């Protein structure tokens, strides 16, 4: 399966601060990928590098098999503030989209506008936040991209508008068979829409892979206090906590856990994401990538 995004040693520095560091990432096609992490983790920087809006300080990134920024006709991008032009009408936006995009699907755009019950004559500045987000999504989808990149597209929406946006996105993915890279700091959005996840913390990718595969290889172990060096080889410790008598580990392993001293529990996606977000970020720690 080919990669829609392939980053090797990718980094971006602003002054003395690294917004993204040592990013090695290969995102296979055909997935709805959730990029999750706290505010300031580097999610927007990674997306802007991928769509060619920023140039890397170190390393390189390819999108759809070519250097980032050279495949504009094949990449749809909805930025964090779901950009629309406040003085332009809905119909003006569609006309602009048709002029700027060689693969523009006007029939798709018009059908979505009718489905959303948007008045073509209404200026974007008079639309609600949810309506502007849907208009921006329509522009992204109607250019018929192979990859759709969405940067926190529902962060400012109320729960109902957020659910409607994500539902429309999933329907579009099923209809168009496109790949999606969606950033969010809300795990619930990732659970609802994505089948692949990347956790980014303090400018570093901590883990990436298909969600089902990640959940099948991560466990919580609770039992008598034990030093981590006494754990079997092949059990990678993500987080650990201890009391005087008890240890709790969150581990990654592909091997069965046979030790009867442990109480073993499976993780939710939220458990897994929060564990990686809460661990100390150290350069020497390996990035975990799990695929099937």
Care to describe what's here?
The protein is an alpha/beta fold and 292 residues long. The protein folds into 2 domains: 3-209, Rossmann fold; 213-290, no CATH class. It is built from 8 helices and 15 strands. The strands form 3 sheets. The chain has a 7-stranded mixed sheet with strand order 6-7-8-3-9-10-15, with helices on both faces. Strands 2-1-4-5 form a 4-stranded antiparallel sheet, with helices on one face. Strands 12-13-11-14 form a 4-stranded antiparallel sheet. Helix 3 runs antiparallel to helix 4 and helix 4 (129-142) packs parallel to helix 5. The protein is elongated, with a radius of gyration of 21 Å. The termini are close together. 39% of the residues are buried. The model is unreliable at 283-287 (pLDDT under 50). This is ABC-2 type transport system ATP-binding protein.
């Amino acid at each position: 399966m080919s990669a829609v995004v392939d980053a090797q040693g990718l980094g971006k520095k602003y002054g003395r601060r690294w917004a993204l560091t040592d990013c090695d990432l290969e995102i296979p096609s055909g997935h709805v990928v959730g990029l999750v992490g706290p505010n300031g983790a580097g999610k927007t920087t990674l997306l802007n590098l991928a769509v060619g809006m920023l140039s890397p300080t170190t390393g390189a990134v390819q999108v759809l098999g070519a250097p980032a920024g050279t495949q504009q006709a094949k990449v749809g991008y909805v930025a964090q503030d779901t950009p629309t032009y406040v003085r332009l009408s809905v119909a003006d936006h569609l006309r602009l989209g048709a002029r700027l995009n060689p693969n523009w699907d006007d029939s798709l755009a018009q059908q979505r506008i009718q489905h959303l019950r948007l008045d073509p004559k209404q200026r974007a500045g008079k639309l609600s936040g949810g309506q502007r987000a849907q208009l921006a999504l329509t522009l992204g989808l109607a250019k018929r991209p192979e990859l759709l990149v969405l940067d926190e597209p529902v962060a400012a929406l109320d729960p109902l508008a957020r659910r409607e946006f994500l539902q429309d996105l999933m329907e579009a993915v099923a209809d168009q068979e496109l790949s999606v890279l969606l950033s969010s700091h809300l795990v619930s959005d990732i659970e609802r829409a994505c089948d692949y996840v990347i956790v980014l913390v303090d400018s570093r990718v901590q883990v990436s892979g298909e969600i089902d595969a990640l959940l099948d290889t991560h466990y919580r172990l609770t039992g008598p206090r034990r030093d981590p060096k006494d754990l079997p080889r092949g059990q990678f410790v993500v987080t650990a906590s201890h009391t005087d008598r008890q240890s709790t580990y969150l581990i990654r392993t592909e091997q069965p856990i046979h030790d009867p001293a442990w109480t073993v529990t499976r993780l939710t996606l939220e458990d897994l994401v929060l564990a990686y977000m809460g661990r100390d970020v150290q350069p020497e720690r390996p990035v975990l990538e799990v695929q099937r």
